[in-house]
Amino acid sequence: MSIKNQVPRIVLVDDDELMLKSLHRHFKISMEGAEILTFSSPKQFIESLDTFAGIDILVSDYLMPSINGVELINIVRRRYPQVLTVLLTGDTTGKVLCKSSISATFIVAKPFRREEFDEVITAFYRLNELPLSEAIKRALNETFIENELPILLSKIEDIDLDFHKLEAMLEQEVLIQAKLFHLCNSAYVGLSTKQYSLSTAIKTLGVDLVSAIIVSVCYHNMVAARYDIANCEQLSDINFRKVKLLKELVHKLHDVSIDSERVVFIQSLLFLGELGSEIAQLITESQCHSPESCYTEKLHIALYTATLIGYESAITDQLYALIKALETANSDCNATKLLLLIDTITNKEVNQTVINTFFDQKSQDWLELFYELRSKYFS
Question: Which residue stretches of the chain are H helix?
Fold first, then answer.
């Protein structure tokens, strides 16, 4: 990513000259002053890679002579892991999307719409604002971006999950099953008899909770493979309790403005920030100066990582909304306020600030339910 105030470098690769001109025109208007380089030959671009100090945004066509866009993106990402990558394709079938989901930050169908590239530009400026050190970014890149995401994790994003698809996905995932059985039989769920049936575990926990658990376990394993974080299991358990509390609270609130599945998934993704914060402390050998700065750094890390991994804009927009709400001490979004309330539950000082800032007398029903469930899950 560019140093702040440095001219962004955008590279466009497509063997269609008309498409290149159209892309160049859009970025020239939308990112005034940016350096825009165009290549009609992917081979020529690869041969020129050594001449670049860095690339901020790479847009590549999927079908090209000698090399496809996924392969090209993989080559560039190995050299510049902080690059935002866009795959252009006229084929939006599941086959192409499945191949590309691990590599590309964004997938844009031809003919493209301006709004789709506006999302890319917004993501660039958001990430460039984040006050994360290069050392922390490098560690996050090596852990979450440069490594291929677990196939199971990419499947969670690629398909519209229902009970039967999820059960089929997990039939061979012994470690995930063990985690589900452990949680299903825990005191938080409260079943009268022990359950060791995969279908029963999924039915008991629900598709959204099981998806959240898969996300948590996959990212936990990616971190554990590189770092010795003593409290990793404890953080994972806390995250599950937050997710369970959030789901139950949303159900009891009956607030139609809150998308239950989305906020549950976002809460599971905030575990990325938790793990990233632990990595940051290990590599910098320093502690945050205050509970507020610790929590803010966690949100920054979650947004940075989720964006580069390629989560949809609805997810990253919500993560960004959490950051802006804390910065401005203001939010009109109930989902944002609820996520802040739940996610700060183990950070008493910040949690109290969230309550004082975002919840007034009209919110007493919310708070009463929250206190009741907090006692249940975090006694």
Answer: 17-30, 42-48, 69-79, 94-100, 114-129, 134-140, 151-158, 163-170, 174-184, 198-205, 207-224, 232-253, 260-284, 291-309, 313-328, 334-343, 348-358, 364-377
- CA 221 to each of CA 105, 137, 233, 349: distance values in angstroms, whole numbers, following the listed order: 22, 19, 10, 30
pLDDT for the residue numbered 1 = 46
Residues 222 and 369 in one domain: yes
The CA–CA distances, whole Å, from 30 to 133, 174, 212, 308 equal 27, 48, 36, 21
Once rounded to an integer, what is the mean pLDDT over residues 233-241?
A: 88
Can you name the residues that pair with 135 across neighbouring β-strands? Answer: none
- Rounded CA-CA distance 335/263 in Å is 7
Lowest mean pLDDT, pick from 74-83, 171-180, 197-206: 171-180
- 237-to-110, 217, 232 alpha-carbon distances in Å: 43, 10, 9
Structural domain count, the chain: 2
Mean pLDDT value across residues 112-137? 93
d(CA 43, CA 50): 13
Report which of 191, 193, 318, 184 is spatially closest to residue 240, judged by C-alpha positions: 184
Residue 15: pLDDT band (50, 70, 90) is: very high
Task: Give the residue among 266, 286, 260 at the shortest CA–CA distance from 343.
Answer: 266
Mean confidence (pLDDT) of the chain: 87
The reply to whether 67 and 195 lie within a common domain is: no
**Containing domain of residue 173, as a range?**
151-377
pTM above threshold 0.90: no
> Peptide bond preceding 111: is omega within 30 degrees of 0, i.e. cis?
yes
